[in-house]
Amino acid sequence: MLTKFETKSNRVKGVSFHSKRPWVLASLHSGVIQLWDYRMGTLIDRFDEHDGPVRGVHFHKSQPLFVSGGDDYKIKVWNYKTHRCLFTLLGHLDYIRTVQFHDEHPWIVSASDDQTIRIWNWQSRTCISVLTGHNHYVMCASFHPKEDLVVSASLDQTIRVWDISSLRKKVAPADDLLRLGQINSDLFGGVDAVVKYVLEGHDRGVNWASFHPSLPLIVSGADDRQVKLWRMNDTKAWEVDTLRGHMNNVSCVMFHAKQDIIVSNSEDKSIRIWDATKRTGIQTFRREHDRFWILATHPETNLLAAGHDSGMIVFKLERERPAFSVSGDTLHYVKDRFLRVYEFSTQKDNQVVPIRRPGSVSLNQGPRTLSFSPTENAVLICSDVDGGSYELYIVPKDAAGRGDYMQDARKGVGASAVFVARNRFAVLDRSSNQAIVKNLKNEIIKKSPLPIGTDAIYYAGTGNLLCRAEDRVLIFDLQQRIVLGELQTPSVKYIVWSSDMESVALLGKHTIIIANKKLVHRCTMHETIRVKSGAWDDKGVFIYTTLNHIKYCLPNGDGGIIKTLDVTIYITKVFGNNIYCLDRDGKNHVVSIDSTEYIFKLSLFHKRYDHVMNMIRNSQLCGQAVISYLQQKGFPEVALHFVKDEKTRFNLALESGNIQIAVASAKEIDDKDHWYRLGIEALRQGNTSIVEYAYQRTKNFERLSFLYLITGNREKLSKMLRIAEIKNDIMGQFHNAMYLGDIHERIKILENAGHLPLAYATAVSHGLEEIASRLATELGENVPILPEDKKRSLLLPPSSLMCCGDWPLLRVMRGIFDNALDTGRAGNEEEEDANNADWGDEELDIVDVDDMIQNADISAELEDGIENKDNEEGGWDLEDLELPPDADTPKASANASSLFVAPTPGMPVSQIWIQKSSLAGEHAAAGNFDTAMRLLTRQLGIKNFAPLKPLFMDLLLGSHTYMNAFASVPAMSIAVEKNWTESASPNVRGPPTLVFKFFQMDEKLKAAYKATTDGKFPEALRLFLNILHAIPLIIVDSRREVDEVKELIEIAREYVLGLKIEVKRKELKDNSVRQQELAAYFTNCKLQKMHSRLVLTNAMTVCYKGGNYATAANFARMLLENSPTEIQAKKARQVLQHASDKKDASQLNYDYRNPFVVCGETYVPIYRGQRDVSCSYCGARFVPSVEGHLCSVCELAVVGADASGIPTSCPSTFKPYIAQRPSLSSNVSLAVVSLSFWGFSGTLASVFIGL
């Protein structure tokens, strides 16, 4: 069994394949119907309108319909395109077991536990016949694929075949009397369907019966654990044979659509394959825990589906890929037990040698691989017979076309065999992991041990083998016995070498890896659909097929779709625009393709720009994919020449910095948003005339004023002031007056607006005494009092560095595309000159981009407007101000497009950091907090980021420095790279410098230990939490440091838990029992020996004072076993002496004999064997009710969250320096401990802390 797809769900009771699309329906015992794409492995849709289990489901052959029947007595017809139920057919009185569409007529047949079979017309939505005769549940009913027959199986131990030919002739009755007769006949069993045969032979109820697709055969399966084969003719039907082997009820059985086999499944958790001709068992497939209930065969392909207790599987019985080998102009392949030769040039196909049939009756025993030696005309054919074997054939030169030529093949045992030289071949012996080299007489020449555990070998050049292991491939030289190259790969199925043996493609189930002849990795392609085959073309492009596409892969890893396939093919050779291939039936085909797209991309990759330009001019390349590719590869100026849509041209022009085309497109679009974006790009390029024109078109007067300010154009600022005055825009007037530094105008504006106090303050501040006295008179007693000790100064805007001109642009060399495209334009201009001569042609209204881009000025309009204001009483209505249609736009200089372009902004270093790393610390250092938080959530299940916010800010500030360039511009941010040197290449970026280093954790750990020893529990708790919060943002580089990170997390977790328990104990004043329990739980935490002694002393004291003498004595014994100090030992002996024979006064929830962990939130013991949940980051344990809560130990992650684990190594491209971390057991100096902090009295003692 070759499993292609598998689902996990409730019990699957019904399965149906779509005839054309890669879809399968599964109806579940829960009442849901699922629609799956088995190629992609995705759930497309689900339908859940049935109430109760759905036992039957079936696709229509040609319409977008399927039918379902369930335990709610309803038959529903669905349209999967509109995702809804079209109608419901009612009539059955009990559970509906199966439903099926007829292939030709608008009929549905249904079987039910009400002991009837009904045939419905789904177009008229009526029941057209009721088939009665069974006297128990009818378990299934189905139409014959060609004849007018229905077969049904029932628990009454019979199979019935019904003749429904009269249904074809049935017409609507003409009068009511006949219609009444039809109703009566339908109710009591009419003559539309009659029983043709009743097949009796099963000893128990029959669960399934089905027709053979072409022969007059029926197969059935029953609760007597037997599968029976029946034959029928025009007059009778009889039992042919019984197939025994199942150990429980047979649930379903049917004929294979394309092979002479029978497939059955059973409640004994097995699927059995039977030879329909020999009527013997071939193979059995078992599941451990799932009973099988239903089978379905695909009507077109060799796929089958089976539903079981926990889902469904889609599978094939045999491999369909033909074994073939290409050598020069010939293809050798195996078809129908013959070795055949196909010539690509002449397309002639001949059979040359018959291949023996395997003696075994098992499946998948046909040829698997084929290797050909052209000089000796020898063929090696490998198969899975006898666990792996090969056959060697020598093909005579004159054998082509002869089908009667026979020879005895030389045989041998081996997992795989390939030619490695002209007359030598290598055989893989898996048992000894050796390559055995043999000659054409099948004699052993030598044996070579292989360097890795190999499960397959492939040709890799003369004398070389490519060895495949589970997770890698390598090239092994058989003569020198050395490894020439090695590559880590996922599981590889096929190897394809280029014709010059310089490149190799390693094909997996869903991956393609391209490497060179030394197995140096070049690129990897990932596919969601299975990869089937591939071949190299003569240009070095790898062409491959999936189940439904022909695709290509360039040397740089770029790929695309060439063609969609109706059927799966296996590529044998690519030549020019033709693909030679084999289909699953072993037939040769030639598929024509259009290679323009991938040749265009290949020319770009190889920088053959002359070919690119030629293809641009002559080919029909177009489409969003090509445009996106050109944008992605940094050629938006080339993409411009493929685009006619003005909006797309505008976007590409902005991206490529081509301001001329952008202006032309903006004129055509004439949209406010596009003018705004044009203004931003023109401002970035410093083309102020275009910026001015864009702001004029959108009437953005505020931005215009600011533009004139920064360019120092005071004349136009004055005009903007007049426009604001005409529009009665008070704020606009005031801003323009401020930009101009005109104090009198500002006072006038404030006075006219009624803000006399502000006008007075402005006049006094600037020393305009006459105006101030006049305003004071008007204000009277409301004159504002101004501070006298303040220094007054005139508020003027700074003068611009450059006045009234475009900013200087970077001078760069013109590219090949600019020259080539300009050459094309020049030729067009010559043609236009000729066309515009006096040849009698009519004038065309064509807009020239260069004519549009001319100097624009609003001064003329303003002057005309002011004159009109003087002459008209109504004044200006500037809201309706429109620029004339022939208004000149600013003209860019002729040299600007050819000699000056805007510099292309590079990628920020912080963005490079993000692209290269999946470590949260580096994302935080780059300032991308969002992705850092997502990484921490995915890796560690962290949800509470409040404690990490200051750490994120420290990482960001520590990895950047800031530099002031000019007084008028903001400071520039500069990324600080680790180990940067002046000799470092500017194109190679290192990782960020992180302020948190792993060796710093030792200092924090020592400080936390000291605070714990001193009894400063809140301080110690804060320090240990800081360690837990910093670890997710620290990067280490060695395996040893990874282990130390895990050790550090465990240490911090234990101390945080213990300290929180102790803090909780100190908060309890009145509950003596709970205090003793918490003191006892603290002793269970894994602490340093010094701290363990202090904790045991504390617990001993608390329990002794609480009257629990036995528990106190136990703690005293534990303390004496931990090398206590003299004072501690003395106290422990005293407790043992007084409490050894006494009992506990109260019962504690504490059993020191039973191992336990303490819940981090409820502080109760979780004994061994009890269910618990843990924090995804720190590993603290909790009772199950806490699942989903925030971890109360680390205060970061969610308890029970799924997480991939903390990444503790740097990316391969980064090699950061990590200072060697001191051992966690390093000594700490002498410290003074106050014993009173630990809950018992005593004087200060000097205690040596050995950590």
Estimated radius of gyration: 43 Å
Estimate the global geometry from the Cα principal axes: globular
- End-to-end Cα distance, whole Å, is 61 Å
Helix content: 25-40%
**Mind describing the biggest β-sheet?**
4 strands, antiparallel
Question: What portion of the residues fall into strands of 2 or more residues?
Answer: 25-35%
User: Total helix count?
Assistant: 31
Question: Which class do the helix and strand fractions yield?
Answer: alpha+beta
Query: What is the residue-mean pLDDT, rounded to a whole number?
Result: 80
| Order of the strands making up the biggest sheet | 1-28-27-26
Number of strands: 65
Uncertain segments are 171-180, 823-889, 891-899, 1208-1251
What does this structure look like?
The chain has 1251 residues and is α+β, with helices and mostly antiparallel strands. The protein has 31 helices and 65 strands. The strands form 19 sheets. The protein has a four-stranded antiparallel sheet with strand order 1-28-27-26, with no helix packed on it. The relative contact order is 0.03. Residues 171-180, 823-889, 891-899 and 1208-1251 have low confidence and may be disordered.
